[in-house]
Task: inverse folding
């Protein structure tokens, strides 16, 4: 199994909060900024080794068949492309398309609705979801880790503790450390824009970059900066993807879910098991009207290999996505636009050539290590 | 702030370090319940949409979306507001199609709405079409023990009104906020006489809430943040124990206390305006009390725009600003201090407020 | 004759200015007045463009002056600076083009075009007297 495996030796400046070393170390991929690593979870080879094993272990599910890697498969851009929504135990489906782990370490918030603040806390959730791993508590995970000889050795090496004392905190830290090594840049775009190689992208992709930055208005949310490009502003926007499923009666839905939140409910379970709660997007997390139907801007890195697209996987190809935006946020021209759509979305009037070029540009965002995973290039 | 369940949180007394969300709902209701003569209630306040016609059936999408969003969010309010007030400037050039398009969007609101005249609704035809669609330009009504007054406070000198070749030209000049050929707003003698008579019948302990498009203060003449006869209107409100003026026009958060009168401005749904101090070539009198709004991300189409809902209790108003992708604000009346106070940013400014 | 011609020339130069003759490259107050008038004409043109619904063939007729009365909040004194939305350090003219493309739904102007110069002249003029603070966000 191919995997982008690079160990960062990031120097940490002492502070109570997350900080980063300002200097670009030799290990930072071209086109990415230095990685922010939490002060309390320095990346070490031992933690990464442990995290890798945990990530791939399907014993941490009620059927023994599902691991993190099931939906975040390194052969498919760390997603389960081409699945529309993910399938957990017993092939149960949820409501959302699996986001990639690649460069998730750069996200300020995790999940489509940003309900978890970091990789550590995100990693604990799927184990307990009835349509993902289906466990009722984390105890089975700790059981396995405590009793497996390989794990015992790795835990001792990673955390210098007695393996009998292992907790979910350690498990989460190890998984997060592994995920922090799944970062990649150095795509044709990166070499063109930051590496000074004018031949790195095709003519079409170069034209597509211009569309991306000008007529396409993509760069408004899929950001490109002076010395790096994350292709996401980290914010939440309502694009009008599938919102029509809940438009009617949105007042009752928001009211009802707010009451459930106040009373105490399991957000993580709700959003994956109830389709209409899922469509509320970030509103379900914050209760703010302004977040109604809003989802996090995905990165576009490696987008070619992580189809299908949008929070519910409802858009199959990059061409579909471009058409959607060109129509002003509508699958078919003239479809109704919901009232909460981000005001920045508007019909683009792109020519057919511009649309083709834009797709070519997006294909130039694939890092070499993922170039032949997922959808094959033709 | 959860727009839905925290909205009745109002603060009494010293606000240092306490945010609305820390206090449990029941405690708040208890501390102001029984002693207040007027009942507690909430209304929504939407303003300054500037629906702008381009051609045919096309309108400026950006302003349309701002109003559409405000209406959609307002419809999510729970418990429901008692009514809605529209603060003026529903149109940009007072064209019938602009007024109609704006009213069509507003008609999606599930509540009764009272309208206030703005200059962008007026100067094309001196308010004729607006009046045909919406009724009197000034009026009053009572609700749960509070006396509400609506004025047309964007009138101006007859001489200026009459000097233009056409209504369109006149409207075009008034539409330019910084156009030096403009003329200062006023309420005028006719309405002052009407107001005096209207208020004469009201008990001095009845809370008064006055809606106006212009500020009923003299803040910045360059941009018509100005009412020529502000002092006279303030004097008419003087005898009342509790008077509040709510105004639009400025497209930014402002608040003030002059004697017994508390002033609050409304945000625009369309676009924000800079604070007067950002024009280096003129002086201004922005209320010292005002903590500037947070320009979280000026590139965001809806930055520093929004709408508000007003909680009225014990005769005073607490304005809750709902701002897209931004921290919502509440400017509440502090009974101990005797003036409105921002509950989110009581003292030091964030970078995005200081910068502007 | 030559002597008289020289005298004549010197005399005419004196009588024209009433002061010792300026050397060819030196500019005079009159020159300054002329140039200042040229500048103010461009500032006025900038103001006209700032309030022109057809600027950049705008699709929607929105003008700069709607959000920036008297050019307020354009902060010309802070450029060049890192502009978050564009993701890099830019000059003021690029910001004008961002506004043209986005809220004004119009076509961008060439950096060197007289229209761009006029718009910038207007913004700078309304901001005169404010100290430079390049890079200030």
Result:
């Amino acid at each position: 199994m191919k995997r982008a495996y690079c160990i960062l030796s990031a120097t940490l400046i002492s502070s109570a909060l997350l900080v980063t070393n300002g200097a670009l170390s030799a290990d930072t991929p071209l086109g990415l900024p230095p990685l922010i690593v939490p002060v309390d979870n320095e990346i070490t080879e031992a933690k990464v080794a442990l995290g890798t094993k945990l990530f791939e272990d399907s014993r941490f599910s009620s059927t023994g068949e599902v691991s993190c890697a099931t939906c975040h498969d390194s052969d498919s851009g760390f997603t389960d492309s081409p699945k529309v929504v993910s399938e957990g135990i017993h092939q149960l489906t949820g409501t959302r398309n699996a986001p990639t782990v690649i460069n998730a370490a750069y996200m300020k918030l995790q999940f489509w609705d940003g309900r978890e603040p970091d990789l550590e806390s995100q990693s604990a959730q799927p184990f307990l979801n009835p349509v993902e791993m289906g466990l009722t508590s984390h105890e089975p995970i700790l059981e396995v880790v405590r009793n497996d000889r390989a794990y015992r050795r790795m835990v001792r090496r990673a955390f210098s503790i007695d393996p009998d004392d292992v907790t979910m905190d350690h498990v989460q830290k190890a998984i997060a450390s592994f995920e922090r090594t799944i970062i990649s840049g150095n795509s044709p775009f990166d070499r063109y824009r930051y590496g000074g190689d004018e031949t790195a992208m095709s003519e079409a992709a170069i034209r597509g970059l211009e569309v991306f930055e000008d007529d396409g208005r993509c760069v408004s949310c899929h950001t490109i900066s002076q010395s790096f490009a994350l292709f996401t502003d980290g914010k939440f926007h309502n694009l009008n993807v599938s919102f029509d499923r809940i438009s009617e009666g949105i007042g009752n839905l928001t009211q009802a879910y707010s009451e459930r939140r106040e009373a105490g409910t399991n957000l993580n379970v709700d959003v994956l098991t109830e389709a209409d709660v899922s469509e509320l997007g970030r509103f379900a997390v914050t209760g703010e009207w302004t977040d109604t139907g809003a989802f996090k801007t995905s990165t576009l890195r490696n987008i070619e290999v992580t189809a299908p697209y949008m929070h519910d996987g409802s858009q199959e190809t990059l061409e579909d996505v471009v058409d959607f935006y060109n129509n002003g946020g509508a699958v078919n021209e003239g479809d109704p636009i919901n009232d909460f759509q981000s005001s920045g979305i508007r019909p683009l009037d792109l020519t057919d050539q511009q649309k083709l070029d834009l797709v070519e540009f997006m294909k130039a965002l694939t890092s070499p290590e993922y170039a032949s995973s997922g959808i094959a290039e033709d | 702030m959860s727009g839905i369940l925290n909205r009745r949180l109002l603060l009494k007394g010293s606000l240092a370090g306490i945010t609305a969300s820390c206090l449990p709902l029941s405690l708040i209701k208890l501390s102001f319940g029984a002693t207040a003569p007027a009942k507690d209630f909430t209304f929504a306040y939407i303003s300054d949409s500037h629906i702008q016609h381009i051609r045919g059936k096309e309108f400026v999408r950006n302003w349309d979306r701002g109003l559409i969003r405000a209406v959609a969010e307002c419809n999510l309010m729970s418990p429901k507001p008692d009514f809605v007030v529209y603060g003026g400037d529903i149109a940009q050039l007072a064209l019938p199609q602009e007024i109609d398009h704006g009213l069509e969007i507003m008609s999606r609101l599930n509540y009764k709405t009272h309208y206030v005249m703005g200059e962008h609704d007026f100067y094309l035809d001196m308010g004729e079409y607006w009046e045909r669609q919406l009724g009197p330009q000034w009026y009053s009504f009572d609700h749960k023990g509070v006396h509400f007054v609506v004025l047309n406070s964007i009138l101006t000198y007859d001489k200026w009104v009459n000097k233009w070749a056409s209504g369109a030209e006149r409207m075009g000049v008034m539409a330019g906020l910084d156009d030096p050929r403009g003329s200062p707003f006023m309420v005028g003698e006719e309405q002052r006489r009407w107001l005096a008579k209207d208020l004469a019948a009201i008990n001095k302990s009845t809370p008064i809430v006055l809606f106006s498009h212009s500020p009923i203060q003299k803040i910045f003449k360059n941009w018509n943040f100005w009412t020529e006869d502000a002092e006279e209107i303030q004097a008419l409100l003087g005898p009342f124990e509790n008077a509040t003026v709510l105004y639009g026009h400025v497209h930014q958060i402002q608040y003030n206390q002059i004697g017994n009168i508390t002033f609050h401005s409304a945000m625009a749904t369309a676009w924000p305006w800079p604070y007067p101090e950002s024009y280096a070539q003129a002086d201004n009198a922005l209320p010292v009390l005002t903590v500037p709004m947070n320009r979280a991300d000026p590139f965001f189409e809806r930055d520093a725009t929004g709408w508000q809902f007003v909680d009225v209790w014990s005769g005073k108003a607490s304005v809750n600003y709902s701002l897209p992708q931004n921290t919502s604000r509440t400017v509440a009346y502090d009974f101990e201090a005797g003036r409105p106070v921002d509950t989110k940013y009581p003292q030091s400014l964030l970078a995005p407020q200081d910068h502007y | 004759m030559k002597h008289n011609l020289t005298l004549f020339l010197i005399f005419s130069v004196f009588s024209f200015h009433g002061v010792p003759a300026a050397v060819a490259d030196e500019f005079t107050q009159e020159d300054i007045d002329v140039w200042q008038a040229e500048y103010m004409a461009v500032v006025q043109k900038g103001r006209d463009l700032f309030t022109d619904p057809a600027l950049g063939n705008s699709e929607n007729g929105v003008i700069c002056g709607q959000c920036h009365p008297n050019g307020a909040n354009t902060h010309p004194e802070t450029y060049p600076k890192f502009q978050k939305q564009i993701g890099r350090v830019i000059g003021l003219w690029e910001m004008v083009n961002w506004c043209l493309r986005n809220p004004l739904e119009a076509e961008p102007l060439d950096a060197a075009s007289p229209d761009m110069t006029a718009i910038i002249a207007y913004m700078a003029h309304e901001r005169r007297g404010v100290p430079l603070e390049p890079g200030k966000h």
About this structure: Residues 41-354 of chain B form a domain with the Purple Acid Phosphatase; chain A, domain 2 fold (CATH 3.60.21.10). The two ends of chain B are 24 Å apart (CA to CA). DSSP finds nine helices and 17 strands in chain B. The mean pLDDT of chain B is 87.
